[in-house]
Amino acid sequence: MITLENLSKSFRSTSGSIVALDDVTLDVPAGVIAGVVGPSGAGKSTLARVLSLRERPDSGVFRLDGLNTGTLDERTTRIARSRIGVVPAGGSLLGQRTAAGNVALPLEQAGMDGPQRRERVGKVLDLIGLTNHAATYPDDLTAGQRQRVAVGRALVGEPAVVLADDPTAGLDDDGAAGVLAVLDRARAELGATVLVATQDTSVVRRIADDVAVLEHGRLLESGRLLELVQDPDSLVAQAVLPAIDPATRSDYPGVADVVLVGFAAIGSLLPEAASRFGTDISVIGGGVTRIGETPVARFRLGLAGDRTDSALGWLAERGGSVRHLARGPRGSVSDRAA
Ligand code: ADP
Ligand code: MG
Q1: Atom of ligand 1 nearest to the CA of 40
Q2: Which residue intervals of 156-262 are DSSP H helices?
Q3: How many structural domains is the chain composed of?
Q4: Atom from ligand 1 closest to the CA of residue 47
């Protein structure tokens, strides 16, 4: 469990002081994959460095399982650091070492050798899907495989927390998917808490349980992703849900947007609402995506019938997030909260 309380950090520059983290308060429960998103310069890497205990905040508290890391001496800081695996931005493997040799490095530095080390490295190579490339040098691996080795090196000490700074940067789709699958396995098989800093909201959509949005060092939004997508004002929801073409025209007397979470809701709620209330409900925009394993739909609906409000109310009672839209001239639609 990671707890951040009012964390702030500034850097001095020639043009004055740069606030990289501004009063950030955030909880990341154990065993969760949390995405930290935001544009370049938002403070993501600074947050990752503070959490890796490489950098101290100016003020505020970072607790690891309740332990205030700011109060530790050098020796206990080293122990706390060993519980945190870091996948640095840009990877940086040693070119003269094999994949296995790179994964083994932290264990060598910690003085572990012999069969115990071989067993750990073997287990991690299996987890990152590179058992057959144990003896391959970085130059002969793909960029995605190299990044999986960097993740393996962060995992080999069996850390409680894994920090990955921009782990899919520069990778193609397959490479990125492979790295994210490894981070997901790290959580599932090692029980690690994983923090992924990224600019790419599709990374969040694919693996995050929780999400935190940073901008100019400030936390704009945080929470469970599947809850935030139900909030019409959520920034994350706008970024991860299927887009609705703003030019969508409708000849229906009523228009509404709904967000539906889960296979059952998406498959059955609209037809059931239509038949219960004698309402004509048509999908005129939006679509279905996946958040992790869960299908999530955002639809723009065209509605006709006497009881459309009751039908929408019924949908909302069943967990659909519903937003009424006003119809403008010539069938254009504009936002109006229900
Ligand atoms: P992100 O990873 O989201 O792109 P960073 O944490 O790298 O953001 O940077 C946040 C802000 O802090 C930026 O304005 C950046 O220029 C500044 N910054 C980060 N590290 C340093 C540093 N070591 N010295 C000076 N400024 C820094
Ligand atoms: Mg960064």
Answers
A1: 4
A2: 173-190, 201-207, 225-228, 235-240
A3: 2
A4: 6
